[in-house]
Amino acid sequence: MESRQSELNSAFLQIIRSREKVLSRDVLQGYVEDFLTKKEIYLESDRRFGAPQYFFDRTSLAQKADQFDAACSRHLDRYQIFYAMKSNSFRRIIDHITSCGMGLDVSSGHELSMALATGCQKIIFSGPGKTDEELGLAISHPQQVVLLMDSPGELSRLAKLVGQRVRSKGEIRVGIRVQNVQGGIWNKFGIPLFDVTKTFINALSIKGIDPCGIQFHTSWNLNPAAQVKMIDQIGSYIVRKMPEDISRRLKFIDIGGGFWPEHGEWLNAQNTDKGTLLAHVKPAFKFNKTHYIREARPIDYFLKKISWAISRPGNPLQGLEVWMEPGRWISTPVMHILLKVIDKKGSRIVITDGGINIMGWERPLTEFIPIINLSQPGLKELSTMVFGSLCTPHDVWGRSFFGTGIKVGDVLLVPDQGAYTYSLRQSFIKAKCRVVQYDGNCLEEVERQEY
Ligand SMILES: Cc1ncc(COP(=O)(O)O)c(C=O)c1O
Predict the structure, then answer these.
(1) Residue finishing a domain among 296, 320, 354
(2) Mind giving me the DSSP string for 18-43?
(3) Which CATH number goes with the domain that contains 442?
(4) What's the gap in Å between 243 CA and the centre of ligand 1?
């Protein structure tokens, strides 16, 4: 009991003493300036198609996909990239990804159907809670789909379904997902490492299944430490516990996604650990307006460290093809949101024509997202509550904007909102909004506003 109390005290003190790094004005203004250089195209998109809208920047997508691939090719001999469709499932993103030879990482029958409809030839199906129907769809496309097994129970359901197949269409390639190092609620995913050999032996006994890989996924990685730790643990487990006739069958190690975009995680004072604690203890506490940053490492650094970990002498993962499932690293800068100020209340409150259901979740409550006034451009950050149009006071886009002033009719840009927004959007009160594509030359409405 006493040790539990001292553990709690020390965690509490650690939070109280923590100091987050301040986000410098220069970095912030440079970021805003960059978007302001392109303001005419955003304004034209608003004039022609209206707000709110997702502004889909196709050139940015091509750049990010190329950059990720180039970084992989600098550090890895044999690799495959499977874009995590859940991070943004907009059809034109998926089409581009498949056209440049990448595969898709899907997590449901719905995503799998979309992936198959694009003609994608390399699909991995991972995630918990796969239904028999979803497994059935996967095994009817053995050439395209590799199934990543999340539990022994799922494997036995798969065995039944494979046994019921009328005609053999080829072996079902299967990987085993390993539980990751974070523990706690993360144990929801995968199979404990100590059970992996047993699961492989079970899989090998099922006719029609080819168990040939291992997968893990760690989330929210500002640096590659968690991925490297997993690679080390799996490598040493294989050396110590996996019979050679099984390890020889391994063809891939799938290191999942979770690569954090390079500009890092930006926070308001109330989003830091200390701020969150303070807000609970004293809800009326007035936070300062400083922004904070949790820095992220560049993608080259991730891949260098991952490659080193895999090729350490004696690591049995060395000869395997490395599979990756990046989502947000690719999709974050691919979409921006355009809003229009529809109402102003006093000098410090504006209401926009779109609610944060365009993002699908209350993202601005947990991080700092700069809002850029394209109609009155400027690098000064001015305090104003920028609300959405929903019937909840938590529908807040931000507490400030960059510009020289703000009035009804102004067009606002919420930049870099490509990840976990479009695929989470809801038609709550307001309809799902339109998507406008910019390919570097032309603007085109590619998905209409739903009414
Ligand atoms: C199994 C798996 N792979 C890949 C991803 C993509 O993660 P991210 O978008 O952080 O790269 C996720 C996200 O939840 C995931 O669960």
Answers:
(1) 296
(2) --PEEPPHHHHHHHHHHHHTTHHHHH
(3) 2.40.37.10
(4) 30
161 and 27 together in one domain: no
Contact 131, 154 (CB under 8 A): no
Residue 305: how many CA atoms within 13 Å on its side-chain side? 18
CA 165 centroid distance within chain:
35
CA distance readout (Å), 228 to 224, 255, 428: 6, 9, 41
Question: With contact defined as beta carbons under 8 Å apart, do 318 and 231 qualify?
Answer: no
Q: What is the SS3 assignment for 116? A: helix
Q: Which numbered atom of ligand 1 lies nearest the CA of 87?
A: 9
The C-alpha atoms of residue 332 and residue 217 are separated, in whole angstroms, by 19
Q: Please give the number of the atom of ligand 1 that sits closest to the Cα of 326.
A: 11
Mean pLDDT over each residue of the chain, to the nearest integer: 95
* Total tally of structural domains belonging to the chain: 3
> Do 178 and 106 belong together in one domain?
yes
Does residue 202 have its Cβ closer than 6 Å to ligand 1?
A: no
What gap in Å lies between CA 356 and CA 363, rounded to an integer? 8
Burial class (CB in 10 A: 0-12, 13-18, 19+), 161: middle
Pocket flag, ligand 1, residue 258 (CB < 6 Å): yes
- Are residues 304 and 208 part of one domain? yes
- The whole-model pTM stands at 0.95
Q: How far apart are CA 285 and CA 283, in angstroms?
A: 6
DSSP 408-423: TT-EEEE-S--SSSGG
Record the tokens describing residue 115, joined without a space.
């992936």
Pairing of strands 411-414, 335-345: antiparallel
65-97 per-position pLDDT tens digit: 999 999 999 999 999 999 999 999 999 999 999
